[in-house]
Design a protein that fits this description.
By secondary structure, the protein is mainly α.
Length: about 200
């Protein structure tokens, strides 16, 4: 798939960040194609990044921070669902490939896409700080970190490309690893079950 070749995924992430910085959509819905799934998952990370920044504020009351934290839970659930949707799409495409003698990869493609998305966000924001003319020492420090982040993203992108190529050739495969988040489920989180207190150790 072309989106996973060379810098295709990183370019998609970067172009989306540039577009959303000019005009942030309220939401990005996923459709049936891989590019749409990737962008919807990327938007979850963008939303989480913004909320996590705000959650560090000390000039607002506790109720404001509590509302942010609850919003973070919802977006984080969507983020994980997005990873799984990418994996399902790819595994459907790879259906029929003989993996009987293939080696299991420890991380799914969706997980790697998520990590590249986060690195793209780090690169975007570290790049902004690397251009801070008002503080040359911070700019220089961030420029060094920016180079490391770019190298890390390039390395991970090559690893993902290799995984896709190996899966297509039957040399390597991955599975969907469901996150099974318990804290959002009132049946599983003891603090959310009506009238029930968590068991003591």
């Amino acid at each position: 798939m072309e989106i996973f070749r060379r810098t295709g995924l990183a370019d998609l992430h970067d172009e989306a960040l540039e577009t959303w910085d000019r005009e942030r959509p309220e939401d990005v819905e996923a459709t049936a194609d891989i590019e749409s799934l990737i962008l919807a998952q990327h938007f979850c990370n963008v939303s989480l990044w913004n909320l996590e920044d705000q959650a560090r504020r000390t000039d607002v009351d506790d109720a404001y921070i509590a509302a942010l934290k609850r919003s973070i839970d919802g977006w984080n659930q969507r983020r994980n669902d997005g990873m799984e949707s990418i994996d399902r799409f790819l595994l459907d495409r790879f259906e029929g490939i003989d993996t009987a003698s293939a080696q299991l990869h420890s991380e799914s493609a969706g997980m790697m896409v998520d990590r590249i998305s986060i690195l793209s966000l780090k690169i975007r924001h570290m790049g902004i700080n690397a251009e801070r003319r008002a503080d040359s020492s911070i700019a220089a420090e961030c420029a060094e970190k920016l180079a490391v982040l770019r190298e890390q993203r390039a390395d991970l992108s090559r690893c993902l490309e290799t995984l896709i190529e190996d899966f297509t050739a039957g040399r390597r495969y991955f599975k969907i690893y469901y996150q099974f988040k318990q804290y959002n489920d009132p049946r599983l989180n003891p603090f959310l079950r009506d009238g029930e207190k968590p068991a003591k150790d």
